Amino acid sequence: MPKRGIPKRIVEDMNLLDIRKLKLVGTLGGGPFLSTTRRDGRIVSLVRYSVSPDRSVLTILDGKLQPRQTIKMAWVPCHLGGERPFIFCPACGHRGELLYSDGGPFACRRCHDLSYESRNLSDAWRLLRQSQKIQKKLGWHGLEGGRPRWMHEATFERLVERHRDYDWRAVLAMARALGI
Ligand SMILES: [Zn+2]
């Protein structure tokens, strides 16, 4: 739990363990590794692990191959055949595909008290609010409209230009937040 006054951490600052990648990672130095990544896909560490014979427990190992954390697993059949692995948060039991770590134990987003709002998403909201402020100045009720009679042509054009700029930047930030 973060202390009061300390800004909330966001998902993008954490190392991510994505169980969907389990099958993709081969062996390295005599044992299987799972990579942890940042949200943008950048690999930040390789975690050595083992899976119990019945595949119900994933054990994260430390550098000396000692168990560091055990994570329960479940396998769910896919429509098109095969199975999909899921992992349970060691702290609360929530079932999902992603766990997060800041270098310490893995846990789900809620247990780490991570902000749901990514930096890009909060940027997008901020830019949208700016765009809406200008809309209000223009007396518009949507994304487009005409020049209010009382407004100078030059002021109108400047506001329309700024509105378009904020709106476009908001769209870009939203797209980044969604990973598009
Ligand atoms: Zn949890």
Explain how this protein is built.
With 180 residues, the chain is α+β, with helices and mostly antiparallel strands. It folds into 2 domains: 11-101; 119-177, no CATH class. It contains 2 helices and 9 strands, in the order βββββββββαα. Strands 1, 2, 3, 4, 5, 6, 7, 8 and 9 form a 9-stranded antiparallel beta sheet that branches. A hairpin with a 5-residue loop joins β4 and β5. α1 packs antiparallel against α2. The chain is elongated and about 75 Å long. Residues 1-5 and 24-28 have low confidence and may be disordered. Bound molecules: zinc ion. The site of zinc ion (ZN) has 8 residues, from loops.
List keywords for this structure.
alpha+beta; 2 domains; binds zinc ion; 180 residues; 25% helix; 2 helices; disordered N terminus
Summarize the structure.
This protein has helices at residues 119-138, 153-177; strands at 15-18, 27-28, 31-37, 43-51, 57-61, 67-77, 83-88, 95-96, 98-101. It is α+β, with helices and mostly antiparallel strands and 180 residues long. Helix 1 (119-138) runs antiparallel to helix 2 (153-177).
Radius of gyration: 23 Å
DSSP summary: helix tally? 2
**Fraction of residues in β-strands:** 25-35%
Mean pLDDT over all positions = 83
Which small-molecule species are bound to the chains here?
A: zinc ion
The description of the largest β-sheet is:
9 strands, antiparallel
